[in-house]
Write a structure and sequence with these properties.
Blueprint lengths: L1 E7 L11 E7 L3 H15 L14 H5 L12 H13 L1
Antiparallel strand pairs: 1-2
C-alpha cells in the first residue's frame, strides 16, 4: 500500500496563486523515512539545548513559529537546515 501525503498552500488574500503538492510513499519505506527525518532534526539541533523529541517537521511552523512552538527560540539559520535536508529525501 502507498501512503499519500498532500498539502496545500493555504489562503493568502494578497496572492492569486494556489499550490497543491503531494508525495506517495510505499508503506515499507515509511519506517526508514521516519528515522531519517528524525535524524535530520536531531542533527540540526545538536548544538542547542533543545530536545529533538519535542520537535516535528512542519514547514510552516519551522519558517514562522508561533509563541508556543518549540521552534520559536531556535535561530532561523538553524531552523531552515532540516527543511533543506528533508527536501532531498
Amino acid at each position: 500500500m502507498y501512503m499519500l501525503f498532500v498539502d496545500e498552500s493555504g489562503t493568502n488574500s494578497k496572492s492569486a496563486t494556489f499550490v497543491l503538492g503531494g508525495v506517495a510513499v510505499h508503506e515499507s519505506v515509511m519506517p526508514a523515512l521516519n528515522r531519517r527525518l528524525d535524524s535530520i532534526v536531531t542533527a540540526a539541533l545538536h548544538d542547542t539545548e533543545a530536545d529533538s523529541d519535542d520537535f516535528e517537521m512542519h514547514a510552516s511552523e519551522i519558517r514562522n513559529p508561533g509563541k508556543k512552538s518549540p521552534w520559536k527560540p531556535i535561530p532561523f539559520a538553524v531552523r531552515e537546515k532540516p527543511l533543506r535536508h528533508a527536501i532531498g529525501l
